[in-house]
Automatic annotation (TrEMBL):
Keywords: Hydrolase. The keyword Ubl conjugation does not apply. Pfam families: 2-ph_phosp. It comes from the Bacteria. GO terms for molecular function: 2-phosphosulfolactate phosphatase activity; magnesium ion binding. It comes from Catenuloplanes niger. InterPro entries: ComB-like (IPR005238), ComB-like_sf (IPR036702). This is Probable 2-phosphosulfolactate phosphatase.
Length: 268
């Protein structure tokens, strides 16, 4: 019986476990997966990761970094305030808790209106949690969304990623069900696919998973309408945050490439 450590590394007595190895989508220069588990799997084998959480973490990161703010991703918890105090930052509050005194939140619209701040701790249960975990790998981690999809793809290819030796892992964050399991989201599938579209010419080619995700994008005649009509889009709109959806749909409006260095997002 192989040990847990051996199974996790994909080796038993020095030999690759073919079952474990396939989950990493071997041989492709561009790979695609979902959520924290997918990021963990691709983080073992890829040279760079792109995390996509369109509504709204990575869109908020794009907006904030574009205004000169350094963003600290942090898992959604009551500890964010204490962490912000330790690192000399301000902590974002929930969308409904925005006030004159605390104008920063996960809402991209609120971040556009808020005064600039040098450092912002931005917690969320999906994109932020994935980025915070991925930072421990030491890999370059990029925050991607519809707003900066073209810029992110160009930067990655310019850096030499996208080969079989230096593959890119694109991670759609998804949402959470009440039991905390992953709920795949249309918005993150299409956001990730917009980045995959820019990476389609990578020398290492797309994995089957990445190619199927890209095919989903190509089959949608109106991406904005699809995201507005999705569960996540309708949820935010019903809560009074239609402006956040509108900002997230500003496809390729941004040239910012937020890169995670030392646990902090800044311009690449």
């Amino acid at each position: 019986m192989p040990t847990t450590a051996a199974k996790a590394s994909g080796t038993v007595s020095g030999e690759a476990d073919p079952v474990d190895a396939v989950y990493a989508q071997p041989g492709a220069g561009v790979r695609f997966d979902w959520g924290l588990a997918g990021a963990s799997e691709l983080g073992r084998v890829c040279a760079a990761l792109v995390v996509v959480d369109v509504l709204s973490f990575t869109t908020a990161v794009d907006v904030a970094v574009g205004r000169g703010t350094r963003v600290h991703p942090f898992p959604w918890s009551a500890q964010a305030e204490a962490y912000a105090s330790r690192v000399g930052a301000v902590a974002a509050v929930g969308r409904a808790e925005v006030s004159v005194e605390r104008p920063w939140s996960l809402s991209p619209a609120a971040l556009r209106r808020a005064p600039g701040t040098p450092d912002l701790v931005l917690p969320s249960p999906n994109g932020s949690a994935i980025c915070a975990a991925a930072s421990a790998t030491g890999l370059p981690v990029v925050a991607g969304c519809l707003r900066n999809a073209r810029a992110v793809a160009r930067w990655l290819l310019h850096q030499g990623y996208g080969t079989a030796r230096a593959p890119i892992g694109v991670i759609a964050a998804g949402e959470r069900w009440p039991d905390d399991t992953l709920r795949p989201g249309v918005e993150d599938l299409l956001g990730a696919a917009a980045i995959l579209d820019g990476l389609a010419g990578a020398r290492g080619g797309l994995s089957v998973e990445a190619a199927v995700a890209l095919a989903a994008l190509n089959s949608v005649p109106d991406v904005a309408a699809a995201i507005r009509g999705s569960v996540s889009g309708r949820e935010l709109t019903a809560r009074g945050f239609a402006d956040d959806v509108a900002i997230a749909l500003e496809r390729d409006a941004s040239t910012v490439v937020p890169l995670l260095r030392g646990g902090i997002f800044g311009r690449a």
